[in-house]
Amino acid sequence: MAVPILCFVGRSNSGKTTLIERVIPELVRAGYKVATVKHAGHGFDLDTEGKDSWRHKRAGASSVMVLSKGSMAMFADVSDQMKVEEVRDRFLDHTYDLIIAEGWKNEGYPKIVIVREQIGEIPISTEGLLAVVSDKPVDLSVPLFGLDDVAGVAALIMKQFPRSPSRADQGLAT
Known about the structure:
- By secondary structure, this protein is an alpha/beta fold.
- The chain has a single domain, classed as Rossmann fold (3-Layer(aba) Sandwich), CATH 3.40.50.300.
- Helix content is 29%, strand content 23%.
- The protein has five helices and eight strands.
- The longest helix has 14 residues.
């Protein structure tokens, strides 16, 4: 069974990252193994000029992996914008209970939308919409959570994406 994907979407600076970083500990306390994937629409560069990994990449390597005890990083060329399921299928193993993706609002994955009064309106598609997190009233037929109702958001996620018995057993062994 493929690891489920849940997207957190909203305007820039609406609080997506903050909400995600507050929800993850709730899920981890409940035994979930969570991976996150962040969409960077304007590109990014994490490698540091002069470091060995940067030098390998500059020399022409298509992929560079850096490993240490307990950590791994990978810098790789990709031909085009990847979908979250492509990232999951290529780079993540089946032991995860949930992938939280920040972005990918138009890809049809289940999603939680963050709406902020000061950021302005965004069109909200109800396709795959599980909930809205907002500091103002929103009239939709899905649960509405306040910005600080992290426990409520986490409970909804756990109800919607229960840990599979096989992954739950593997999680106990790690």
